[in-house]
Design brief:
By secondary structure, the chain is α+β, with helices and mostly antiparallel strands. It has 16 helices and 16 strands. Helices cover about 40% and strands about 20% of the residues. α6 runs parallel beside α10. It binds zinc ion (2 copies). One zinc ion (ZN) binds next to α10.
């Protein structure tokens, strides 16, 4: 029996299956390149971290009470007995790296971006995969709400530049260790009389992580929680001012947004700002990405006291949304400029030498290793989309020339072997 990829993990292909055109490497590179361009424009630099981290890093940062740590991580033990985990999210590894390399000492305002793979062993469905690619930014060293606004506007702009204009930004404040405990108690008091009617997840969240109940999608629970007290009414002076200030900045930037009082996101480490961007192009899994502020995280992971804010955007969701919104874009042309057709064994040997020279001159070129007949080789040249075919047969060999055929115009000419590279280059200019 042939193997298939692990459940809910995708192959991204140069020739994607017709039902899943978004699984196309060309499209992925196009979106990644746009993301890099936007990040560079805003002063963010790229960081790459290993695909694995010590398990304790995620337990400490993401939090024991979260779904991610309690049931979704891919864990393994190495030969030295170390417990390792495939990255379930992008922020904690970046925090670990900046502490390890003391980056904040040299760069008190540190702005980073990354493109990486995340792994979560959760129930899969379209738009929710066990391996997914995340495009993220993290900014450390400032508690200024203007930085929150910059990070949010960067995400909004990125989506706009790849064509997703159908997007909604939702923002909330999840408070801080000063104001959140009192709200948590208030929420528990409110839920207590109806807790027995709520779903199993909410029953355990009630004990370990009551705020996450606000996230619940079970219809009856949503109904119960719609009347719950709002975190925004319980913010301390500092958190309240931060939120008002963020909103003023977003208005100055002309970034439309809605307040979503129940938006909490799945991490324990968020403080103050939390945000999410959704798109109608995605159906039920409508979140494109989101993020928030995490002012205690660097210190919790053993680093200096340094505030931070960031986001993570899902690559797959992005591409699926672009697909369903019918966004057209031109991917990089991977067709060879030149295709060599050789007829006969000695011509083959000459063609191999010429192919190497052409490639060495920086020109993309290819030849057929399967077909023998002229017809079969010409068919492949057409299929690959080559613009110029170079033919070498017995006659060409004898005369020391190569026959050129322009595939667009069907024009033909004969070029001396020593002038082939020059002729291809001048032809490309025509
Ligand atoms: Zn507060
Ligand atoms: Zn529930």
């Amino acid at each position: 029996m042939p193997f298939s990829s692990p459940p809910y993990m995708n192959d991204v292909l140069p020739y994607p299956p017709s039902g899943n055109t978004w699984l196309h490497t060309g499209r992925w590179r196009w979106v990644e390149e746009r993301f890099r361009q936007v990040c560079r424009r805003y002063g963010y630099r790229e960081i790459r971290t290993p695909i694995l981290e010590l398990t304790d890093l995620f337990v400490r940062s993401v939090g024991e009470g979260t779904d991610i740590v309690s049931k979704e991580m891919f864990n393994l033990v190495d030969r030295g007995g170390r417990r390792l985990t495939l990255k379930p999210e992008g922020t904690a590894p970046v925090v670990r790296a900046i502490i390890e390399h003391e980056m904040l000492a040299a760069h008190p305002l540190l702005k980073l971006y990354y493109i990486g793979q995340n792994f979560r062993n959760e129930r899969g469905q379209k738009g929710r995969y066990r391996q997914h690619q995340q495009l993220g930014v993290e900014a450390f060293g400032s508690a200024d709400p203007a930085l929150d606004a910059e990070v949010i506007e960067l995400a909004v702009r990125f989506y706009r530049e790849i064509g997703i204009t159908d997007q909604q930004l939702q923002i909330n404040s999840v408070g801080c260790p000063q104001c959140r405990p009192a709200y948590r108690e208030e929420l528990k008091q409110y839920v207590k009389p109806t807790l027995s009617e709520m779903c199993g997840d909410c029953k355990s969240r009630y004990e370990v992580n009551p705020l996450r109940m606000l996230d619940c999608k079970a219809p009856h629970d949503v109904e119960i929680l719609s009347g719950a007290p709002k975190l925004l009414d319980w913010l301390c002076e500092d958190c309240g001012e931060h939120f008002r200030s963020l909103r003023r900045h977003l208005e100055v930037m002309s970034v439309p947004h809605q307040i979503a009082p129940q938006l909490v996101r799945g991490f324990d480490y968020y403080t103050k700002t939390a945000f999410e961007i959704t798109s109608g192009g995605l159906g039920s899994q409508n979140a494109l990405g989101g993020g928030g502020r995490y002012d205690g995280l660097v210190e919790d992971c053993g680093g200096p006291a340094a505030p931070g804010i960031g986001f993570g955007l899902g690559m797959e969701r992005c591409l699926i949304a672009m697909d369903s919104l019918g966004i057209e874009f031109e991917t990089e042309d991977e067709a060879p400029a030149v295709f060599l057709v050789a007829l006969g064994e000695s011509a083959k040997s000459a063609a191999v030498g010429l192919l190497t020279k052409i490639r060495g001159a920086g020109i993309s070129a290819d030849m057929d290793y399967v077909g023998k007949s002229l017809k079969a080789q010409m068919r492949l040249a057409g299929k690959l989309g080559a613009r110029l075919v170079l033919l070498i047969g017995e006659n060409e060999l004898k005369e020391g020339v190569v026959s050129f055929r322009n595939m667009m115009t069907s024009q033909q000419e004969t070029v001396p072997q020593s002038e082939v590279i020059q002729r291809i280059q001048s032809w490309a200019m025509e």
